[in-house]
Amino acid sequence: MEIRGLNPKNIEKISRIKKEDDWILDFRKKSYEAFLRLPMPSFGPSLKIDFDSIIYYRNSDDKLTNNWKNIGESIRDEFTNLGVLESEKYMDGMGVQYESEVIYHNMIEELKKKNVIFTSIEEGLRNYPDIAKRYFGKIVPYADNKFSALNSTVFSGGSFIYIPPHTKLDRPLQSYFRINRENMGQFERTLIIVDDDSDLHYIEGCTAPTYSTESLHAAVVEIYVGKGSKCRYTTIQNWAPNVNNLVTKRALVEEDGEMEWIDGNVGALSNMKYPACILKGDRSRGTCITISVASSNQQQDTGSRMIHLGKNTKSTILSKSIARNGGNATYRGKVDIGKNAENSEAFVKCDTLILDDLSKSDTIPTNIVENDSSFLEHEATVSRVSDENLFYLMSRGLSKEKATELIVLGFIEKFREELPMEYAVELNQLLKKNL
Amino acid sequence: MKMLEIKELKVRSKDGKDILKDFSLLIKKGEVHAIMGPNGTGKSTLSKVIMGSDDYEVIHGDILYNGTSILNLPVDERARQGIFLVNQNPVSIEGVTNSEFLKTALSSVRGENVGLYEFMKLMENAMGDLKMREDMMHRSINQDFSGGERKKNEILQMKILKPKLVILDELDSGLDVDSLKIVCENVRQYLEENPETSLLIITHYSRILEYIKPQYVHVMKDGKIVQTSDMSLALEIEKNGYDGVNSMSGNDVYE
Ligand SMILES: Nc1ncnc2c1ncn2[C@@H]1O[C@H](COP(=O)(O)OP(=O)(O)OP(=O)(O)O)[C@@H](O)[C@H]1O
Ligand SMILES: [Mg+2]
Q: pTM of the prediction?
């Protein structure tokens, strides 16, 4: 089953396949109108996307299961080779999406007993409409931008997570997204609610093989962080070099809550991603630590947005970009400390490492402070791998490649130390492959 | 047996300045040589050229290591063949830990992966010998290290990597009296344990030479060696400065 092209008929078809309630189909239709109306982004990489040639929906024969045995051998092998099955033992729960549908979901018994919900977005919307109606599409409105509108129109797959009050997870929940088909668009949609006084670490991984034509990944992630709660969202995306990755990620943070985005961008053709925190509650905090590696022909247009609304709020943005082999790494970020957000603090640090003369980087920060009691600090550095440092490492026997690799890994050490062990190892492998 | 033979070396900096002018030197296996000379005569340049820095161009002459020219070898290959330079001003590198770096370096030099356990044991012993605090192992290379700590770190690397030709470019600068003693003891012991190793000490002071006795002391001026003698020359220079040194070429005095 495959749906190509964007039109009202296809939208209804997707909704019908998913046996959705009317309110969701209405949401899709309104979103489609907004999509038609909204312009392409006026900033960032120039995107050439033929919306009619994209496959918006495609399922495999596999139905959602909590047992790998029930998944077709070829797909299971694919995920085994990606190390996804192996990583499950480090997690409290895991979901896996293949093309448009979530095919696997499992969670330890203990969490089920605590009424933690971790399922696909479809199941979530169907089985928990009260929660869904309260939060879905509220943190990222469908008309936020052209690609949030597109996602809202055709979304399929993604995670639905609800952590009840006073619940702390010992280990992360993980989802893994895989595009396999050429010309495929993946439009998963994730909704995470961490209710008051709770704690969640969520990890997202994604890959796609390389094809000659471009693919599109336009996801939306909405996170609600309740009072005194903490959510950390870790992503390592390694899309193939012809995937346009256009993702809207936003968290709303209540009083004393804390949101952390840990966001690694290694692959993709064009990547536009600016994880955001709306610091609504007093004393809420937001952190975004990102790395982007822009290699040949890649455009990494990444950064973060911190919107301070509550008093005594704090945000930190730490961005590390690497441009090599003609890649282009741009930091684009926004910090807005509103009039009522008294006594707030924001700290932005963007560092760029350029590996050769072909590559480019740019820093485009927007900093707004609308009251006198708050404070914003912005630092930016651009550096090159210095000959002196290379000479030093090589004079101890390291090859030039190895020496460069160590310098690059050193540059992003602050990011690596935020990752769970097995992910830090994976990232190292990934960067080595890409250097 | 010849270890390092430098023949009529002429070296130019990238911006066209002639720094080494007809420089010759022969170091045999197991020998300790010292080079002294006024600031800016080209001592550090010499050491970097031996190591293979591409900041400089060799426009004449040759450098033979164990009988073969190394001029066309890249820096890392020279290191793997056993040449080791203790830098006058070691750089710092953010985010790369000492242990990560040194383990990678040791694996490169040995040509095979070094086990973590063996490496940790080597490090512990070597750091103990040098009286270095253990946490320095996990810190970024030389980042926020004091001048003296950086020098100790260089000797730590030497002890681990076990080179055959060691060039000490002002090892003594930045070390306090006690540290100098510890570091020199370590170098001396290294020579005792590895009697084939040759040493080239670049210094301004005779103190380091009291600890590690050189067979030959050379005076370098304006890009070449102008006099060669023994330890007495170092003492004389310390007393009377370089003005008294006659500028006849002493290249083959000791052959
Ligand atoms: N890369 C370079 N480019 C241009 N000039 C250089 C370069 N390296 C060294 N020089 C110059 O060459 C001369 C020799 O420098 P070098 O560092 O070798 O002196 P040195 O003998 O080690 O002095 P010191 O005793 O002060 O350490 C100096 O005049 C220095 O400014
Ligand atoms: Mg010098």
A: 0.83
